[in-house]
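Budget justification aside, the reviewers requested a transparent look at the raw inputs and outputs of the sequence design task funded under Objective 1. We therefore reproduce one unedited record. The lines immediately below are the structure tokens for a 95-residue chain.
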């Protein structure tokens, strides 16, 4: 049951395009205690970075207790797509 709920959160987060709704869902994720789940947190990083909120995405990325290549790739790709090539290169070089 818990895995189903987490999956639903990830799917919703990936498909949300409106910033206010992203932040609202993020708030509920935290309240429900799912923010420590790596998959949910990775989805949040991706959602914020896709929407151009690179500061929120990076803050989530930097505070992830464990990271896979997925959030790292997401951050580097979004930095590059938003013209932040130096930040993308720096993140690539340091990780």
């Amino acid at each position: 049951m818990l895995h189903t709920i987490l999956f639903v959160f990830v799917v919703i987060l990936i498909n949300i395009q409106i910033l206010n709704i992203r932040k609202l869902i993020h708030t509920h994720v935290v309240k429900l205690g799912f923010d420590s789940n790596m998959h949910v947190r990775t989805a949040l990083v991706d959602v914020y970075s896709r929407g151009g909120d690179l500061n929120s995405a990076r803050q989530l990325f930097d505070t992830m207790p464990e990271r896979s290549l997925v959030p790292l790739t997401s951050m580097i790709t979004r930095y590059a797509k938003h013209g932040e090539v130096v930040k993308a290169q720096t993140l690539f070089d340091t990780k």
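Helices lie at 2-15, 19-31, 38-50, 54-62, 69-81, 85-94. Residues 15 and 47 are 8 Å apart (CA to CA). Computational costs for records of this kind are itemized in the attached budget.
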